[in-house]
Specification:
There is one protein chain. The protein has about 140 residues and is an alpha+beta fold. It contains five helices and six strands. About 35% of the residues lie in helices and about 15% in strands. Helix 2 (about 45-55) packs across helix 3. The longest helix is centred in the middle third of the chain and has 14 residues, at about 45-55. The protein is elongated, with a radius of gyration of 19 Å.
Length: about 140
């Protein structure tokens, strides 16, 4: 496993040629393939990209913290795209837009007649994401 621990120089990128079993010819190509929409050259962004790469190799639950507008959804999507789940669904749920009274039904589904207005069976978001990734946004 290769990990960039310090800053990098475009001219010395060939010191780290293998990521995800592929050889990259430039840092730009690596960034495009690793985190399609995450851009930057700061050490913080490089650290995040390396964390994404390491997390993508695991089968675990991930909690992504951050202020509104910091790109939590981009990080979640990048983790999904480089995980073993990449061929499965990526389901995003804006939990703040769902009324509290409907949240359980949205997440877990319901059966016909379970409550007033439930005229048919409806699978929940967790079922839709089965085997894939579910991103619960606030």
């Amino acid at each position: 496993m290769y990990v960039i621990q310090k800053g990098y120089n475009m001219n010395t990128f060939n010191e780290y040629p293998m990521y995800f079993g592929k050889t990259y010819t430039s840092l730009k190509q690596y960034n495009q393939l690793l985190c399609n929409k995450i851009i930057g050259r700061s050490s913080s962004i490089i650290d995040i990209m390396n964390i994404i790469r390491r997390i993508s190799d695991t089968d675990t639950t991930v909690i992504i913290y951050g202020e509104t507008g910091t790109g939590k959804d981009l990080v979640a999507r990048a983790i999904h795209e480089f995980s073993q789940r990449k061929e499965r669904a990526f389901v995003t749920i804006n939990c703040g837009a769902i009324p509290e009274t409907l949240l359980e039904s949205e997440l877990f589904g319901h059966k016909k007649g379970a409550f007033t207005g439930a005229i048919m069976n409806r699978p929940g978001k967790f079922e839709a994401a089965d085997g894939g990734t579910i991103f619960l946004d606030h």
